[in-house]
């Protein structure tokens, strides 16, 4: 990562210097002394350039002979070659082995459906229909952070885990996610771990969801670079040295991750501690821990191992503070089919440019619809979704 930064950034600076220095282009073919003078001029300009635009994350010495650099060395930040702390070294060897060790293949692999909810789940009847006939291929966990849920489906009875209060935006949200993961990891058959909210509905039948997740080798963690105030604007230098600003990422919290990555989340304390201390709402930067911790963690530890989009659809296209929510009258066959047919992930930056990025959703190398679940649906939408379920999930 660091090496690629050096090679991405430096040629740009050099190009800038060249552009400044070679304006009289014809002179190259002209007399020799002129050519030498231009060369000398270039060297001078480069040195001035290095002085005026001091590189932030790397040393200009990659480009110049070290003897030339000696006078600058003292004031250039020496971060790339800094010594790692004890904690960083320990974390990096644990994570490296977790990433590469062989994982046991269970005889009957299951998907853990982990519901993060304030209380009762309005769509239990729908989920019951979704799970029907698939015993032994799923397990359910419910973290209710405000009040004890009243269950309407026998599948959910006895599935509440020990829960704690969750404060929006604070690390307690991440703690609840970790609590769900720890409970679900106890069952060695669980291979994928899906985080869902009380307002989520399934977009496909169980077989489709099962094959989609089990057939891929990725974790579906939403992750993108947002240079705006709700992205990197929430970064602070307190994250240094472990997390540089260029590594800070954003994404929706609703993930579907493989077992290896679930273990890595529980194994991490280095990055977790940083986010616990320095990413909180209401301190001016208004950092929301659950929107940054996992995207940043996996962007650093295993960027190739995550899809960069979430399999749970949410519609931010209205550009408001809250995503679009669906009432009973909004729920039609056409709406659900529209959502299931989307095959590009959507991201928009929070700065005034509002740059939209669309990326094809690549599943095992080929383009495929992105979403397995969707939110946010009001409880009143239950009957409509239930009535349409067999229809919109028919392939
Ligand atoms: C994924 O792609 C590889 C290579 O194209 C193929 O061999 C494999 O069967 C695919 N996996 C699934 C689940 O389709
Ligand atoms: C899945 O990914 C892991 C690393 O994330 C890799 O070691 C393994 O070979 C991959 N398996 C397949 C079938 O691609
Ligand atoms: C996700 O984004 C990272 C860069 O942030 C990239 O290296 C990686 O290949 C992306 N993953 C996929 C599956 O495209
Ligand atoms: C479905 O998508 C079509 C084409 O993008 C659009 O015209 C229509 O309004 C959408 N319908 C619903 C209910 O979202
Ligand atoms: C589902 O409903 C739509 C519209 O109501 C209809 O056009 C379609 O044929 C139905 N599909 C199935 C598989 O029943």
From TrEMBL:
Keywords: Glycoprotein, Glycosyltransferase, Membrane, Transferase, Transmembrane, Transmembrane helix. It holds the Pfam family Branch. One of its GO terms (molecular function) is glycosyltransferase activity. It is found in: Membrane. Signal peptide: none annotated. The chain crosses the membrane at residues 33-53. It is a single-pass type II membrane protein. GO terms for cellular component: membrane. It comes from Rhynchospora breviuscula. This is Uncharacterized protein. Coiled coil: none annotated.
